[in-house]
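Filed under: proteins

Residues; backbone shape codes:
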Amino acid sequence: MLLEVVSSITGINQEMSNDDQLMEIVYRGLKGRRFLIVIDDLWSTEAWDQMRRIFPNDYNKSQIILTTGLKNVADYASCPDFPPHDVAFLSLDDSWNLFTETLFRKDLCPPQLEEIGKHIVQ
């Protein structure tokens, strides 16, 4: 995850760096900037403790959104102003409909994109 964030910020692949160096790069790269970070599928409170250290809190309306399947992780990572939001799983058909309606509005999904689109939805 750190490598992906560093690459998004710097545009450079930092594979030879250790975790401490990567965390420093992320922190410095985001410091003073407004950002939106989406962390998908977080599975432990320990992982959240490690990750939240790398995101500066400059009180500039930056946001971090995380998803998890574990209520205890959601409760642990939440803050009073933004309590966890429970979301039910969608069926594959409902997911596909939401995906295509969002991307293509009233048009149909082009046939050449259907296979990859269904893979993304799954």
